[in-house]
Amino acid sequence: MAAPRLQYKWIAGIVTCPKGWLLVPARVVNATVIIEDPMVLQSMIDIVDFRPKFDAAAINVPLGYPESPSGPAGSFEPDVRERVGWPRRVAIRTVPSRAALNAPTREEALAIEPWLTRSDFRRFRWLREAADLFQPFHQRTFFSANPELSYTLLNDNQPLSSSPYQEEGVLDRIRLAREKLPGADEIIAATPPDGAAQLHVMQAVGLLWTARRAIGRAINRIPSDPNWDHTGLRIEMVL
Predict the structure, then answer these.
(1) Residue 132 lies in a domain
(2) What percent of the chain has pLDDT above 70?
(3) What is the mean pLDDT of the segment spanning 40-48?
(4) What is d(CA 42, CA 28) in angstroms, rounded to the nearest whole number?
(5) Rg over CA atoms, the chain
(6) pLDDT of residue 49
(7) Residue 146 lies in a domain
(8) Contacts by 87-92 with C-beta closer than 8 Å and gap 24+?
């Protein structure tokens, strides 16, 4: 017997955090977004197998990867950085090639992509976990996004000059989220779950806006006509 049809759409914003993945789920009833409590899940399998299944989830990792190096600027990343603007363009990381991501050692990865930094390598454990799991059909539900891009959208497509690592930037983002996602300020201000920080919750809440756009078929792709990697995944970021 088929599962009963939910009376709402189920969305999520998902970001990496020290103990795994920080998930902020929300229900969309008509035009109202009802945000649920954040939670930390240890593995990407837990995210993909989450029940009820998400109608749309925005996640801050790539899904498709270039087959060959594209240089430190990346391929589509310059367009994303232009939208985010200065100084927050630094938050848009270049997507490494799949060859560099899967290299057995750091030295071999650097031989492929010399621009990789320590910060890039620290992200590799999450990127590899997602890359090993995601298949093309997952892109019907999961969308590669970036919190700074989401907050730019919330700011009427105007770049933010403040940093989320400073009090002014936190207050700016809480204000923007509250205007479009009532109750978001309470979620961000609450004590974060073990293994995550307020920053992670704030980022995931921002991604909810991108997920909300996805269920309304209002997302834009960067690039507008993305390439596909050899696994059949689109190499893109959505907003």
Answers:
(1) no
(2) 97
(3) 96
(4) 25
(5) 17
(6) 95
(7) yes
(8) 87/161, 87/163, 88/148, 88/152, 88/159, 88/160, 88/161, 88/163, 91/146, 91/147, 91/148, 92/146, 92/148, 92/149
- 102 residue type, one letter: N
| Position 1 pLDDT exceeds 60 | no
Paired tokens of 139:
């892109």
* 148-205 pLDDT tens trace: 999 999 999 999 999 999 999 999 999 999 998 989 999 999 999 999 999 999 999 9
Q: Which residues contact 144 (CB under 8 A, 6 or more apart)?
A: 59, 60, 61, 62, 63, 64, 236, 237, 238
> Amino acid identity, residue 56?
A
State residue 100's pLDDT score: 96
Q: Is residue 154 part of a domain?
A: yes
Total tally of structural domains belonging to the chain: 1
List the domain range (segments joined by +) for residue 178.
9-61+139-158+166-215
Residue 177 in any domain: the answer is yes
**225 by DSSP, 3-state: which?**
strand
Buried b (16+ CB within 10 A) or exposed e, 32-66: ebebeebbbbeebeebbebeeebbbbbbbbbbbbb
